[in-house]
Amino acid sequence: MKEEELPHVSTATNPDGDARPPTPAADAPSIVKRAPQMPADKLEGFHVVGKAMAKTDSFTRVTGQDRFADDIFLPNMLYGKMLRSTVPHANLKRVDATRALALPGVAAFASGEDILVRYGILPSSPDEMVMALDKVRYVGDPIACIVADDELTAEEALELIEVEYDPLPTIANMDQALRDDLPQIHENPRRTNNVHKEAHLEFGEVEAGFAKADRIFEDEYFFEGNTHAPIEQHAVVARYGGDGKLTIWCSTQTPHYLHRIACAVLGMAGSQVRIIAPPVGGGFGGKTEPFAHELAAAFLARRTGRPVKIALTREEVFYAHRGRHPVKFKLKTGVKNDGTITAIHLQSWLDGGAYGSYGVATTYYTGALTTVTYKVPAYKFDGCRVFTNKPPCGPKRGHGTTQPRFALENQLDKIADALGLDAAEYRKRIAVDPYTNTVNGLRVTSCGLRECIDAACERTKYADKRGKMRRGKGIGIAASSYLCGAGLPIYWNDMPQSGAIVKVDRGGGVTVFAGTSDCGQGSTHMLAAIVAETLGIDVMDIHICSGDTDLTPVDLGSYSSRVTFMAGNAAREAAGKARALIAQAAAEKLGVAPERIGMANRRAFDLDDPTKQLTFIDAAQLAEAKSGTIAAVGSYWAPKLAAGYKGSGVGPSPAYSYSVAVAEVDVDLETGEIKVEKITLAHDVGRCINADSVEGQIEGGVYMGLGEALMEEWPFRAGEHKIPNLLDYKTLTSLDTPPIETIIIETDDREGPFGAKEAGQGPLNPVIPAIANAVADAIKARIHATPITAEKILKALDASSGSTLRLRKAPVAAPKAPTTPRVPA
Amino acid sequence: MKEEELPHVSTATNPDGDARPPTPAADAPSIVKRAPQMPADKLEGFHVVGKAMAKTDSFTRVTGQDRFADDIFLPNMLYGKMLRSTVPHANLKRVDATRALALPGVAAFASGEDILVRYGILPSSPDEMVMALDKVRYVGDPIACIVADDELTAEEALELIEVEYDPLPTIANMDQALRDDLPQIHENPRRTNNVHKEAHLEFGEVEAGFAKADRIFEDEYFFEGNTHAPIEQHAVVARYGGDGKLTIWCSTQTPHYLHRIACAVLGMAGSQVRIIAPPVGGGFGGKTEPFAHELAAAFLARRTGRPVKIALTREEVFYAHRGRHPVKFKLKTGVKNDGTITAIHLQSWLDGGAYGSYGVATTYYTGALTTVTYKVPAYKFDGCRVFTNKPPCGPKRGHGTTQPRFALENQLDKIADALGLDAAEYRKRIAVDPYTNTVNGLRVTSCGLRECIDAACERTKYADKRGKMRRGKGIGIAASSYLCGAGLPIYWNDMPQSGAIVKVDRGGGVTVFAGTSDCGQGSTHMLAAIVAETLGIDVMDIHICSGDTDLTPVDLGSYSSRVTFMAGNAAREAAGKARALIAQAAAEKLGVAPERIGMANRRAFDLDDPTKQLTFIDAAQLAEAKSGTIAAVGSYWAPKLAAGYKGSGVGPSPAYSYSVAVAEVDVDLETGEIKVEKITLAHDVGRCINADSVEGQIEGGVYMGLGEALMEEWPFRAGEHKIPNLLDYKTLTSLDTPPIETIIIETDDREGPFGAKEAGQGPLNPVIPAIANAVADAIKARIHATPITAEKILKALDASSGSTLRLRKAPVAAPKAPTTPRVPA
Asked: Is the N or the C terminus of chain B less surrounded, counting Cβ atoms within 10 Å?
């Protein structure tokens, strides 16, 4: 063929938006059940929502094309290292970098004297310094930062910095923190001890509730602290440009928080600072606040005029982490003989470590959601967080609710046993009803808790197994509920909690600008799916621009299980406005009313006669010719739900997810070793937007719960972390993970985008008590402290048998790996 | 001071938007004059517009922090080289890469057979292949592309590709192209020669006009072809991701055109292709269309799954360029004895080279704007573009109007001399009036031509010098006018020519999304200035996101002097909508009517009582709390101005700029060497948004005009470029550049953003004829062909003196450098 005869194209040619085949749906995972409160008429007609498909960003992730923060290399870049305290508590007498600065290749140094500002993620706890000025408060507390031409030189220079400490007594644990005769970690003239925060709340007639109870149960529990252990260690690159603008690439779940703190700490205008969150290799709450090394990198980039990278070592991540608080509980529950709860009094003591972090919120969270799962007519909560000379704790997946759920579900099983009730049936009987309010003023919308219990029990043949298996084998159930984002914007009143911009290109591509940060949870896909559903196009037609404070609207960030719900609602609103413009143009072209325009499969069509249709591209171009650039803005404000009492801002959420775990275990009565044979998890996700994503989140939550239930520990010796590394810190490998069966329950929440609720955190919470309850079923004895190790099992067995023969040193090893890897259900 | 006593901040703290001092204004350059048609009441109160300041992106540019396309390195990247024809015209018999592919490190190869699609930037000229299939048409025509692990291996592999040509006669020049007995470069059964495009237009009573003329002048002119010679050579990086999406980083002025062509050529959906234009190191029209190497890189990135970079060598840029067409003119003008023009007949012949490029538009442009500068009551235009076996020509700064302006202004001077009129006064007399229409249907709005003439003459003491200096010294004047963007969207009817999104962050930063590409002309700054003025903030508070087809609305690109005008209007509309939301919230807070809210200096205030004020940040936050994310969309459509005849789409513009150059020269009568002593350029820019930017554009235009006037040549020998390198191709260095004085004339155009018109191209056009006219004043003889070399001067001197003694070989050297560099006026 001659060139002159070939097909030709020009810029006038419309690219064909259909050239790429639609993203195929994968095999749907597990069961999808529907709870009765979901309106049936909303179920039909989705073309993206509800399908199971690979996340849109999984392709570049698994092919290694994504660049994480530590993959960023800028010309002339310096590498920074933080000098960290080697003592748990001391006055800082002297920090001398003279010798370090003399080392060839060292470019600059900064210490506490350079940044005389205290900051905090919460307005109530502004107690951190980028680098310590007069005191160090834990082993790992940042003291100084040094930057050099390469990482090894920076490390070598660290060794040359001379630090002189004047040691103070170590506050090593909660008991010491509550004493009045020890020094304060943070000066507080209003106290004589190391209490950070106390909360005392009472709702309903608590004393009367206990008075009318037939039985009262009182127990003590301990939930061990642990850490997020994300695969990606924290990393930051900061560049101070020739234009006086600071750009920070950072592995963060909350780019806009870092933006605000960086501006304030460095004294820069908001318009001069840009935070970019590259893909984040796991956050789990551990990357939700600004870290000292991030601010130090920015400071030294400005000081030197050269880009600065700081990537934490794994050991540093253990210090910096802000993981799960160790919490002690006293739990008192009054019940009628039929199990009806008459009152609960929950007391919690949190070991906060050396700084505030999100600890005030955590304190409230250990009490707030007690009432959202089961009917509690009267409730008293006392919370207390203390400072100790350990790395500060903060939010980890299930923030603040994971620990009390272990206590509550454990005791509930005990109550059922004591009253001769089946633990599952009992939970169904006292489950909260949809669309009710709790005694502490929380508004429940959709609730699929009973459906979760039924589905999990049916799937596991729970009724055939519970109490009916040989000694050593056990089955246990537990339930939980979780937030879909905090109902109050904690920080900036009246701002929308999420904003989104949706732009439609005449070539058929659609861009969504959202201030979220995808920390692996899948927010990129969820936003794409919501917008694709709204506009009737494919998820791969959509480009998500997120995690960039210059390019995206403010969003509080990826925490509190808020992104699909809140950013999703904002994106849906924006896409809906764009859809209206396109539908109007299509309606005019097709000669039908705009409300009769359907949009699906990259077509705009007459709902009554789908043969009357336009391609999405043609419709978008008509709309553009009529209205100009097709772009629209959406915002989401949560309803104002706080009840008004002090602390009432922690707990309210526009909606709550519900999760039920059934654990099946086989305990080796000789060694105490626990083999978790299977976890079945039913989760009320409202509306399932992508079954693969929901399943992934559930599996991740179960996996993390297993680690906390069985092995993760946070041991200190006089303030020194004993195992700050992944060799000694035991957590599950994939081979340790038992089969996990996921059951998705749909309830179509009225507040969520397309009815969706959260799936990222809730499923973790019931796993730990379900295992505890299964172990109790297996060994007829209860373990009141996590992790449930073989040693504790043996102790419990011995205690229940009255024998002391078994009180020998038992193996503390992790459970044996199953012989075959998990095969998806 | 103890840590506990330090000031503290939290995420609740508002960053202070005033922490960064406002960008200081530089010393204002030159004069800013105001033409009478500018309404006086619009002059006051600007706080950004009209100030002279450094471009917002100059800081990162001069500190070397910007990354151009060739600075991008991706992991696992391949380097590509194009195999180019070594013969000007041949049938391609065989392309065999067997030996090349066997070379270690060579990854892949592609040739014409791989991409069987013809494309073209204009719908009327789809005559290009990414790589030749059956014919090569010029030395440099792409035949194949090879990619290898490194650049040297790719170069080595090129040598191993075997190509067999079957030579065809070379069409070496226009005369040959017009012959009927030579082969056609592009098959065209409707013709027997190599004519590409003919245009024949007639407006008014042309014959009658000539009939009533007192004098008729007929002359022939030749304008030499030349090239853009941008500092940055063309470069592209293409990546085909694991998600099936193609990303192309490319030094392009028109990312959205490349997007469309790449989709069509590669058969991909618009949503799957993303074009990113990094900062462009000079375009001047040479980067306004998709190039073969860009499409080849994309194709081979997809074929190999690895990123591919292709950076052209300087020699390749000479082949790929699409520079200024060589044009021959016949110009016939009828005038009354007082100089009034009665009719013009302009004939042009363009040597287009081997492909169409924008040549159809160029053909019309050589005739379209003849009538926009002076009153022409009757006008006939005949244009003809031919194909020759040379690198294709296309648009270069002043696209198509630079060449006829040389002819028109040259002849006009001759007419003035013949009629005994002063050349400047004569131009004033026949200058078009503001707000009139031309005989060929072009609508003139503001026009500061007379003011430009007055200012340039006054500044140069023209009247004291013209015709009054010693032989050898001369002063000359010329005028021109230019488009502010094409009035018609050439490609996609009814789409807005520019779109913009403006987002206001609660921290005081503002982001503008615009599909423009900053090719050094300053569009980034202009958009920032327009939005900063609208919102009352500083230019450095603004982040411009441009040149990214995923992130930005469609914009036709950076050509036709359209960006400040069209994208500026879109950005102004978007910013105006955002301003309205903010002003409304501020008005409510301050208790005044919204129309009484002024915004300047990062404040929103009561215009009647400026002490009643809010910071911009506070006002923006109030607006956000009220309306949600503050973001708005703006679009610009040019008024529909085409008169309806064939070709009437080329020429109409929403507004025209006017420029007057006065050149002062000193010609060495012995050697013919011309020393340009000074260029004074007065430019009617409508409203000057940034005097530094306008001055820079004028200086750049003058600089480029000097090169074309004095030395740039495009010499071929039988189709082979004789000097495809910057050693032999003479163009000015900074030392060759004479003092340039800039005079900015403001006319406040009713269509432009804040009244602005273009400055990027117009100022080049009068420079060349002004020099020609100054030379004529100096030597009393006229040169009818560019460049005006010493050799031509000597010939003209000899011809005018009747002597032949001087017909010896004269030096062709560039003019001597001035002994001191230019000191800014």
From this structure: N
